[in-house]
């Protein structure tokens, strides 16, 4: 149980993504006066067009033994979901070097345990929040299916399933080819099988973000959109004020929650924030009722969120819409929507679906996952600037870990005993890298 003391500072949260908004919520709940400063609008970064999975099953970090070798075919293929356009970028090369050195079984064990704690805390917090303050966000407890086209990869997943069960009590259910076709009639026949994680959920991230914004405003949080933070005024180990496009803002405490763009503030904070943007795409389609309702040859889109393991494409049912997402491009701060890539992802998804995806989505989107080389988020006080905290680097699980990250930050700022061990997320872990 948390013990709270009476420190309730004024806090300015920089960045109105899912992490900044949850941090604002938990700080406000504790009686802090909170302002969110957002350059564009709430959720305009990576937090609305994502796949909407709240997935406590995603315990394993990307850096694991053999990860580099395993990724090579993806990297060498033009169609690969993972791509790293070669360029002279010392930040990227340094990041890749560190990632490579984190691909050990000891780091995997350490990171998985910390991710498990944060994911579990977050799922409990989501359920608790939605029970008390319902937001219409299409929350569904449909689980998450990972589908394998080939028998070898399907069978090999058994080892992962055993490991997840023995270490973390997460047991996916095995569906062989015919069971999978029965479970999910929206899939083509002939796939090797799937593993279903029944403890996972999904939601509509745009609805979550707009509902959360409304709740924050109702509960007294000030939200300043179209306000870009341009400079940090640090003096003698304290952040005195931030200079923004709308003037200077002072505060007792600041939280940096600018996602993939957090490294731009590392220098004034005198610390390492080793995050690179992992660009991903999503397309949202309107479901064509004529394909699902009429005739014996009905072909509904899947009702369950699914990750197609062989092509790293993910699909999410969102009411009368359907989202397809994929790709991890370490391509720098590039927001371009590449039409060929969009078509490639759509065509990839189509090869698994009986439902005929329209050629044209109702929306296409790209966002930057904030990727840290050890695949653990950065949650904690800046080592050199006393009144500034960082909440960033949640990588591929930022939506899933938003509540837990926000809660931890609020507990740290208010001097409470933290719900889980915060040490694995501390920025101090990068100090020896400078
Ligand atoms: C294709 C794709 C699919 C994904 N699917 C999932 C999923 O299913 N489940 C899951 O858990 N995660 C998923 N993710 C990851 C998740 O979306 C991210 O981890 C998460 O959104 C990161 O949130 P954030 O608040 O840290 O960053 P952001 O959402 O990027 O928010 C940062 C905010 O800071 C603002 N900002 C930046 N600089 C400044 C400045 N100078 N001044 C003021 N404001 C500033 C930005 O405008 C932005 O709004 C996915 C990501 C992608 C790309």
UniProtKB/TrEMBL annotation:
Please provide the record's keywords in A-Z order: Oxidoreductase
**InterPro entries recorded:** FAD-dep_OxRdtase, FAD/NAD-bd_sf
Q: Does the keyword Oxidoreductase apply?
A: yes
What EC class is this?
A: oxidoreductase
Q: What is this protein called?
A: D-amino acid dehydrogenase small subunit
One GO cellular component term noted in the UniProt record for this chain: cytoplasm
Which molecular function terms from Gene Ontology are attached? oxidoreductase activity
Give the superkingdom in one word: Bacteria
For this protein, the Enzyme Commission number is 1.4.99.6
Name the Pfam families for this protein: DAO (PF01266)
The residues covered by the FAD dependent oxidoreductase domain are: 10-412
Q: Which organism is it from?
A: Neorhodopirellula pilleata
